[in-house]
Amino acid sequence: MQVNVVNLGGETVGTVELNPEVFGLEPRGDILDRVSQWQLAKRRSGNHKAKGVSEISGTTKKPHAQKGTGRARQGSLRSPQFRGGAVIFGPVVRDHGYQLPKRIRTLGLKTALSVKHGEGKLFVLDSLTHAGKTKELAVTLDKLGWSSALFIDGPEVDAGVKRAAANLPYVDVLPQQGANVYDIIRCRALVLTKAAVTHLEQRLTAEINR
User: Which of 50, 138, 145, 151 is the most buried (most CB within 10 A)?
Assistant: First the structure.
């Protein structure tokens, strides 16, 4: 699976061979859905909270006598039937994350990469460096048709690119270890550097053979 390698000027500067075990899998919508839902669940903060009876501020005195007033018996003004009282079975702080087998996570990432390659939306860049301003980078990416894209570099992202892309609303830049299914499938174009291709293939093939 050979693809062209381009630079930020749009010129073809070589080719690279993609591993079909990583970039040539059949589409699996079920796997992509499982992994993306797992990612979104992990992102949830889970800090919603409602107060129980023991957490409500207020007196513990009985509101009125048990009998003889003509009113329903009450034991506390902190009970849920009163305004400002407790919430029964309300939300509590919790972790929404759950376990997903590593082989499913690995398959999901390989499937996402394969889908982008199959759609013709995967591009390989020789290197990702930029010393200019955000406006200059935006013009460059617009000429290449990458104004809405996810860029994945090697282990380290160039500081100039990271700074220039920070204010571009539809452009994300990640190191290879941050590559994930959700960001890949929601972007229009996936741009990998040669370093990213090498590291992703090494990482994902090593997990296959484990």
Answer: 151
pTM of the model: 0.81
Alpha helices in 14-155 (DSSP H): 20-23, 29-43, 102-118, 134-144
Residue 132 has pLDDT above 60, yes or no: yes
pLDDT higher than threshold 80 for residue 80: yes
Structure tokens at 16: 């690279």
At 107, give phi and psi (nearest 5°): -65, -40
Question: Considering only 91-100, 114-123, 154-163, which range has the smallest mean pLDDT?
Answer: 154-163
Total domain count for the chain?
2
**113 with 70, same domain?**
no
CA 98 and chain centroid, separation: 15
Q: What's the one-letter identity of residue 197?
A: V
Of the chain, the end-to-end C-alpha distance in Å amounts to: 24
**Of 11, 37, 28, residue with least CA distance to 113:** 28
Cα–Cα dist 85/209, whole Å: 58
Directed axis angle between helix 102-118 and helix 29-43, to 10°?
120
Rounded distance between C-alpha atoms, residue 161 and residue 140, angstroms: 12
- Host domain of residue 204: 2-45+96-208
